[in-house]
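To: structure desk
From: M.T.
Subject: fold request, one chain
Message: Could you run this one when you get a chance? Sequence is below, nothing fancy, just the single chain.
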Amino acid sequence: MTHPFLDLAPLSAAHFASIEDRVARLLSTRQTVVIMQGEALLPLEGAIRSTAGPGTTALNVVTGPYGQTFGDWLRECGATVIDLAVPFHTAVTAARIREAFAAHPEIDFVSLVHAEAATGNTNPVAEIGEAVREQGALFYLDAVASVGAEPVLPDAWGVDLCVIGAQKAMGGPAGVSAVSVSERAWARMAANPRAPRRSYLSLLDWKERWTDAGRTALPHAPAQLEMLALEACVERIEAAGPAAVMERHARAAAATRAGAVALGGGLEPYVRDAADAAPVATTLRTPSGVVASDLVAHALAADPGLPLAAGGGALAREMIRVNHYGPDATAEAVQGALAALGGALAAAGLTVDPEGARSAVAEAWRPR
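Reply: Done. Structure tokens follow.
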């Protein structure tokens, strides 16, 4: 008996290359796009280890947990790392980046997360890119969460290494990812004696064995299901129109913030300024004495499929995440999440206004 997931024709090199080309069009980039056969941590780590080394001085912007991870990788590579940490309830500014450059003119590498789904903030990459270009530094960007939910434009922003994944706003699986690589970044890798070679982390291996070889023979068997799913994600975004998909995510974020405030019970947006809030996830601060992870557990007990999670680590006590990305960037998903949180808050003895929350979500979703 045949099975649609198992009995597939082999994915040809031409088909693989066509998916790369569609991802490049999604990013409006003329840079080389390499699709990596694994979750986005693969190109995120591979890009750092390929371009950073003992001679690197890196400005590592920390607006959430992934920025902390990037700093760890950079130090392991032997780079000198200058961490620019800002409170997780806000975003970094181009002015702060320029201040760091003025204090450390030797900086030649900048690492930044675009949208931090874990903390609910998003950073102004276009303005930061201008500052990085003025410095002449290599610009590395984690756009895994933001792609599909807000513009991601490596060429226009001067991003040299832009990593994306399918599992957030693109609405796909976590098993495939991609990175766009500028000519400057390729040159940095070629000059780096510590760049991974003959390794799953190696971007140079892909360049030499795939891109430079004319993309006619794949270096190894691709993750076929994940590649087809990535293609389907891009097709769906193309069919709906990227602007419409981004608008849906923006409405979900605005509706969640408005609905949470109207719900009451002591909930408030964790990211204070709406302009700093990511369109993929809205984080909420719980009232004093209410443990966020307990509240989420109560809400999920009624409906385990809701896009709710507690913050990671120490944030589990005070932060709730409403993950309204991909298929959950809908009014129904937002309404369901807030209704469940309202029930959990009421069970904890707090006064809530579920009808007010429903009305606020509906109003925020109304076309303008």
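Reply (cont.): The first helix runs from residue 13 to 26. Let me know if you need anything else for the meeting.
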